[in-house]
Amino acid sequence: MKRVFSGIQPTGIPHLGNYLGAIRNWVSLQADHECIFCLVDLHAITVWQNPEDLRKQTRQQTAVLLASGIDPVGQILFNQSAVSAHARLAWIFNCVARLGWLNRMTQFKDKAGKDRENHSAGLYVYPNLMAADIMAYKATRVPVGDDQRQHIELANDIAQKFNHDYGVEFFGTIEAFVPPEAARVMSLRDGTKKMSKSDASAQSRIDMTDDADTIALKVRRAKTDPEPLPVSAEGLDGRPEARNLVGLYAVLAGLSVDQVLERHGGDGFGPFKQALTDVLVSRIDPIASETRRLLADTAYLDTVLRDGATRAGTMAEPIVSEVEKIVGFLK
Ligand code: ATP
Ligand code: MG
What is the spatial distance between Cα 89 and Cα 134, in angstroms, rounded to a whole number? Predict the structure, then answer.
């Protein structure tokens, strides 16, 4: 059985992009993989997090994952900082990765923008920690959204350089598993930007805890263009917002984009947005209400994470100890 590592930052409430691009695939991977699901709080503090919010969001994320169908007993679910192997291996990888490699990472460029000098060193070396997350377990498969492909390539570069520098065959190849549909859900305010927890506008995303009225309002306010929907997929070229909404509907309704346009081509956005709201609410509402129920029991959530951390630590410890021995640390 292949071992999977997946991480999500407890930086906010999980949104529809996280769900369609990541969480729902995690749920299906459980059937035939050994899965390690991680709330990556070390990654989260690469940008400022209010400590109280970080604690709250870690529980919120946990609740959404459980409500979405993650199995904390058959698989492992924990928060990253609770297993020291991540930080130890990341430091070693900081010394393996080259500055030139990190300079090419588009996520850093996107997040830091023009104000590069004022960002944390942690944000810059984030991909090295991500490589450590995966390799601390020798996981071979990493389900990610399209935005993370480049980081997986970097992780493979680090693995190869480590093997080469130390003359070992210790780390194998990691495979990015990008789901075929809805790999990238775009912002409701700007069809050229991905939906993101860190977007300042709450209107830009649909949270997995939104109630029906909030979903309806956000979809009504979603940016569109004045043209009616096209009758075939080619008609979506140059219309990023329309493409995003049609793509979302297709994934949620289990249809192809062309099938959606066969039904809705020629419609204005008014009726289409109503149909989209309906499929969104029917998917999100059960998850949102189960999340609320779980959040009322923080003791349970904390126990799930503690138990997961113990099991994750047991798995990572021998691997990272071996790396430390290879590097020459006196044990
Ligand atoms: P942040 O803005 O804080 O980076 P995020 O919205 O990008 O938050 P992450 O926690 O970084 O969320 O990512 C968790 C998972 O969700 C990753 O696998 C990532 O590829 C996926 N993901 C994030 N945003 C999207 C999106 N808009 N569409 C599809 N998948 C996404
Ligand atoms: Mg992200």
Answer: 10
